[in-house]
Amino acid sequence: MSEHALLSASSAKRWINCPPSARIESTMPEQQSLFATEGSFAHDVAHMLLAEYLGRVDPIGLAEWQYQLRSDSLWAEDLLDYVRIYVDLVIEKINAARAVSRDAVILLEQKLDYSLWAPGGFGTGDAVIYADGYCEVIDLKYGKGVSVSAEENPQLRLYGLGALNRPDAHLYSIENVTMTIVQPRLDSITSETISADDLLIWAQDEVRPKALLAWEGKGEYCAGEWCRFCKIKHTCRTRAADALALEAYGRTKPQLLTVTEIADILGKAELLISWASDIKSWALEQAERHHVTYPGWKLVEGRSNRAYVDRAQVATRLLDAGFKSEMIHKDPELLGITEMERLLGKKQFAELLEGLIIKPAGKPTLAPDSDRRPAINSLEAAIADFADQEANL
Ligand code: SF4
């Protein structure tokens, strides 16, 4: 698992706006999502392509690297196409830097230390370029979830600080830092250029005081759009209070909501909906994976639809039974199960297609105790399973 700073650059927006979030989040287990794994694979591919361009890997090493990446289940031609968008941009910037300084420095996947302003703070710069008077930090974001702008982006600015903090910055008398985010799957490339002086003022005035609070687990909790990736967003009371702010409308007069109030409610409704949906998915995951029980609620099998086991066999059986092809098909597909049952009638449907229809288990869901479905893993479910098995013998 990769090393991770408490005051990481990727969570900077959160700990700058809500300093105590850093310490409380660190008590939660790390979870590597499939998206993160895919993102880190895309970075490996980009690193290899740029190392090849810069001649930093010998032919045998390159062949081995390529073989290793191409053998990975995540390898895909479209991933390569997307990564090339980032790689081409970096190459363009390398060439521009070399036009300014023949000995421009290019760093790939380097640690950028900004611990002067945030205790223990460091991150990894995907590509950093130094040329006379300026420095470029280029960040690849492979996800396709949210578009992120480089403008006033704390993560990129912290990388910029890390870049300023390296000896190369002094050798090239850096005056300006340009930070770029490339999101190839969202067709988005954004940049911010800031003077080194302004970046240092931001670090001293904005980052340092918040970082010290965050490091000590102090400061005020504060909810906002930065809660989105917070590990405690499901159970955080500050976020709950923020989401439930609309509740105050139920306690004021006059009886009818005004147009202005409704306009305000519309603005806050999205937050309430997303908070409620987070709570639902969190509770389901806790019940399913960690056997947490919620008073008045139980885990049940969700609804599911019947499906054909083998479409070709269904068609053969029905044709053998005398049905014409045009009756049982809605070109070119076999009729859906409900339509087929209507055509054959319940009795004939059951007889002719015995063994060819299944009802897959539904996805678990939380339901109130009053729901008629048995709780999963309960005695009733075990008996029902046993009865099903007996009936199928
Ligand atoms: S959910 Fe939001 S308010 Fe709560 S700790 Fe996380 S960032 Fe702060």
TrEMBL record:
- What's one Pfam family the UniProt record gives for this protein? DUF2800
InterPro entries with a match to the protein in the record: DUF2800, PDDEXK-like_dom_sf
Source organism (scientific name): Anaeroselena agilis
Q: What is this protein called?
A: DUF2800 domain-containing protein
